[in-house]
Amino acid sequence: MSKNVLYVVVPCYNEEEVLKETTKRLKEKLKNLIKEKMISNKSKVMYVNDGSKDKTWKIIKEINNKDKMFTGISLSRNKGHQNALLAGLMTAKNYADVVISMDADLQDDINTIDEMIAKYNNGCDIVYGVRSSRKKDSWFKKTTAQGFYKFMRFMGVEVVYNHADYRLTSKRVLDAFEDYKEVNLFLRGMFPLVGFKSDVVYYERKERFAGESKYPLKKMLNFAWDGITSFSVRPIRLILNLGIIMFIVSLLVLIYSLVVKLLGRTVDGWTFIVCSIWLVSGVQMLSLGIIGEYIGKVYSETKRRPRYIVMENLNDED
Predict the structure, then answer these.
(1) pTM (2 decimals)?
(2) d(Cα 106, Cα 22) in Å, to the nearest integer?
(3) Residue 318 domain-assigned (yes or no)
């Protein structure tokens, strides 16, 4: 068991307020795991600096200088949480047998790592960290979050309910995952596509230790929309179905208009016609917008620009 080298990948964007506490708790956790011979003494924590504007990278380098159990990479610019996480995973797999990803804000329960590793040792290549409840969430956040997962499933996207990006992945999963070249990333929807044996562990999500959430409502909505349009063509199919319905309605309107014409009541129906014009115009604009979103994603994919650029890798300097 002790041969398994574990890397904990932690994306960081302006996390100077929490880094020292995160480091303290992760160090204690890794030391206990090494002592219990669940992981190798070569195991490390890899911080990923996602173009932070504060002292995050400076703090990471200071931590690395004091303790080689902690390392880090710095991206050339801010690329967003999903790209930063991917950069960490793809870098860590070169050094580790198994990788666990988690956020820096200490909301993910690090004590769950023990259970994740136990399931990995029992043959699981992917272990998803799943929230056991949302009792601490506000009514609005709880409702929107649950609605998000249900809507994703309705749209045909395979996701693990109440799972974010707290997961364990084996090296062979990450080697296979490297073949997924999408520019538009939605990692929690991509990992189930890889296959391999998987399981879940449940944990109680805690309050953020310090700082502000990096996912306000607007960003969450954009994230959800990216997930839907990156994994499902169902919105386009819904447009087709809507078009069929509108065509049937237009036939009924045509029949109604002819009947009214024959009865000599052509003055009536002005309000109906105006409303119909606005309704059809609105549906057309919405449909064009959805189709345009897909075309835009195809455009982004065809350019094949790098999803991230690692500017500095402390692991290579150790």
Answers:
(1) 0.70
(2) 7
(3) no
Contacts of 38 (CB under 8 A, 6+ apart): 1, 2, 4, 114, 117, 118, 121
pLDDT given at position 9 = 93
- Same-domain pairing of 32 and 139: yes
For 133, 141, 214, 223, 318, the CA distances from 217, given in Å and listed in that order, are 20, 9, 10, 10, 40
Of 214, 224, 86, 64, nearest to 152 by C-alpha is 224
Domain identity same for 151 and 130:
yes
Q: Are both 221 and 163 inside the same structural domain?
A: yes
Q: How far is CA 190 from CA 8, 43, 79, 228, in A?
A: 20, 26, 18, 12
In a domain, 69, yes or no: yes
d(CA 47, CA 74): 8
pLDDT tens, residue by residue, 58-94: 999 999 899 888 999 999 888 888 889 899 999 999 9
238 and 152 in one domain? no
Give the integer Cα–Cα distance in Å for 209 and 214.
13
Same domain, 203 and 111: yes
Domain range enclosing 249: 234-303
pLDDT digits (tens, 9 = 90+) for 260-308: 666 666 555 655 675 677 667 667 767 776 777 677 667 666 767 777 7
309: CB partners within 8 A, 6+ apart:
75, 76, 77
Looking at the chain, which runs of residues are DSSP E strands?
6-12, 44-49, 70-75, 98-101, 126-131, 163-170, 198-203, 310-313
Q: Is residue 309 part of a domain?
A: no
The token pair at 51 is 């173009």
**To which H or E segment does residue 308 belong?**
none
Residue 99 within a domain: yes
The Cα 244–Cα 225 span in angstroms is 24
